[in-house]
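Hi everyone, sorry if this is the wrong subforum. Our group has a chain we'd like a structural model of before ordering constructs, and none of us has done structure prediction before. Sequence below.
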Amino acid sequence: MLAGPLLNTTNSYSIQALKQEFNCTGAFISNELNRAEMRHLVKPDDFELCYSIYHPNLLLESRQCLFLQTRGCRKTQIDDKCLDRCQKSTEVLSLDSDAFIIDKQRGSHNNLYAQQHFMNTESVTQMPQFFGRYLIDMRVINTHTHIEVSPLELVTLFKRFIAGDIEAGQQLQSVVTQTSCQQYHKGL
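Answer:
Right subforum, don't worry. Here is the predicted structure as tokens:
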């Protein structure tokens, strides 16, 4: 059993607890850690560290309707039909003019995303053999990130890059633009 990327595993103690208490065989390491913090992680034997190198940057999931104030939803409260049927997306600006994307998929709660997808290819080249698996989240969330290839071509580029093809990594940087990975360099 793998502890998923939304668990936000950030230290060696949580890794050890996942192994001992929940019998996990691996865990996704938080994207909030920088490279130096990752290198200090200690994992038990027979435990796999995983990392999400590409995904929409989820900031918040809410059971409350975030569209009542942004898109003029006519309902006064959420009902059982909202979760199953509602599908909306909009962008809101903070007081500092930072954009945030509110997205509601059918069958899901309201989600708030950062304006750019997270993409960290440096973790693959700078920390070889550290991670046993990588996640590439291909959900379609309309952020400011631009992708100039088809989803199949994008997955193929990621697969080639993870397998060691440096040229594929360079292609990824040119066909996927307006992404963020500042946490990897600075931490939070």
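For your construct planning: The radius of gyration is 18 Å. The first strand starts at residue 2 and ends at 3.
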